[in-house]
Amino acid sequence: MPRYKFRCHTCDDVFEIDRPMARASEPANCPQGHAETLKLLSTVALTGRAGATGPSAPAGGCCGGACGC
């Protein structure tokens, strides 16, 4: 289940909530009881090449060789 990070506008507390992706856009209350929160953008870093059998092909796009940079 995905974990979403929020910040409270009132106390600046940062907290995380596990919920299904179908409920990702629902508001969340601060653990301190405040209702005004902001969903933070988070990133996920995946490393390794699970299932890769050989060298990867160029991806193309800017700086992938196709734009000439």
Describe the protein's topology.
Layout: E1 3-8, E2 14-18, E3 37-39
Antiparallel strand pairs: 1-2, 1-3
Query: How far apart lie the N and C ends?
Result: 40 Å
User: Approximately how much helix is present in the residues?
Assistant: under 10%
The total count of strands amounts to: 3
Q: Which word captures the global form? A: elongated
**Cα-based radius of gyration, to the nearest Å:** 19 Å
Beta-strand proportion: 15-25%
Nearest-integer average pLDDT: 82
Give start-end ranges of low-pLDDT stretches. none
Structural class: mainly beta
Order of helices and strands: EEE
Largest sheet: 3 strands, antiparallel
Strand sequence of the main sheet, in spatial order? 2-1-3
Number of helices: 0
Summarize this, please?
With 69 residues, the protein is mostly beta strands. 0% of the residues lie in helices and 20% in strands. The mean pLDDT is 82.
Q: What report would you give on this structure?
A:
With 69 residues, the chain is mainly beta. Helices cover 0% and strands 20% of the residues. It has strands at 3-8, 14-18, 37-39. Strands 2-1-3 form a three-stranded antiparallel β-sheet, with no helix packed on it. Strand 1 (3-8) and strand 2 (14-18) form a beta hairpin. The N and C termini lie far apart (40 Å).
Which key terms come to mind for this protein?
single chain; 69 residues; mainly beta; three-stranded antiparallel β-sheet; 20% strand
